């Protein structure tokens, strides 16, 4: 099979020296890739600079990205070239990207100037509209500083929502066996499964690996694999999760 795997965590630049990111190490994605490679499959591995990755080998093609936008562009380029047999989307993708930054002083000045044009500050609806317009205009401010000065006591960071990468995978690769991942923190197993089933249905996945951050420590990693019928299987380590995913993907591919 020809497999595409995403792993690691995207980061979004604030300026040339700062960024926001998540704590994903890519270790589970690495283990999944190594398990597919051990079974003789071809793997295209999309990952991030700080994440761990499999050792180089002829059957492995590693592509490096940083931002969610770069991930989207890279995936679309790959999809234009290849119809993958399976996509394992384990990357922790940033929900938001940076839009602009403002010092506390600039923010107050701009907001005050906008509100100052109002005649009646007691008109709550009109006040909300002006604040919303002001925020939209501030968000469109071009961030052209290579390094944001640190002289302000408070820095306001504007974030805007990123597109959901998983939402486009079925449309762009309808033939692929799609495995998505959902991470929650401190929830019951029943809630974890319920949310996983919802994500699976919404994004037309074949499988979802639902896991809770509080059950992950080193190689110990409890994961619940949910199929399109809502049935579940549980693994307790990264190696077990990887083998379970490989087995299920291979089985579904053989039966197509």
From TrEMBL:
Keywords, sorted A to Z: Ligase
UniProt key word Ligase: yes
Keyword Chaperone among record annotations: no
SUPFAM superfamilies per UniProt: CoaB-like
Sequence ranges assigned to domain DNA/pantothenate metabolism flavoprotein C-terminal in this UniProt record: 2-102, 143-250
First and last residue of the signal peptide: none
Any GO molecular function: ligase activity
NCBIfam families: coaB_strep (TIGR02114), PRK06732.1 (NF005231)
Protein name: Phosphopantothenate--cysteine ligase
Organism: Enterococcus termitis
């Amino acid at each position: 099979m020809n497999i595409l795997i995403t792993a690691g965590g995207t980061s979004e630049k604030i300026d040339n020296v700062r960024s926001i990111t998540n704590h994903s190490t890519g270790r589970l994605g690495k283990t999944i890739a190594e398990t597919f490679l051990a079974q003789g499959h071809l793997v295209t591995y999309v990952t991030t600079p700080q994440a761990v990755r499999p050792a180089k080998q002829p059957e492995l093609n590693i592509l490096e990205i940083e931002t969610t936008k770069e991930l989207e562009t890279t995936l679309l380029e790959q999809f234009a070239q290849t119809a993958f047999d399976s996509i394992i989307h384990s990357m922790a993708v940033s929900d938001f990207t940076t839009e602009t930054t403002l010092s506390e002083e600039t923010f107050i000045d701009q907001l005050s100037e906008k509100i100052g044009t109002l005649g009646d500050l007691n008109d709550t609806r009109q006040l909300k509209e002006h604040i919303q317009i002001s925020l939209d205009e501030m968000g469109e401010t071009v961030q052209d500083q290579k390094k944001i000065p640190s002289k302000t006591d408070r820095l306001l960071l504007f974030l805007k929502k990123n597109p959901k990468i998983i939402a486009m995978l079925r449309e762009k690769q309808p033939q692929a066996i799609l495995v998505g991942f959902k991470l929650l923190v401190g929830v019951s197993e029943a809630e974890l499964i319920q949310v996983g089933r919802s994500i699976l249905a919404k994004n037309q996945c074949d499988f979802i690996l639902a896991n809770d951050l509080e059950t992950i420590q080193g190689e110990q990693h409890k994961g619940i694999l949910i199929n399109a019928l809502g049935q579940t299987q549980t693994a307790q380590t990264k190696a077990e999760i990887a083998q379970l995913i490989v087995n299920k993907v291979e089985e579904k591919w053989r039966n197509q």
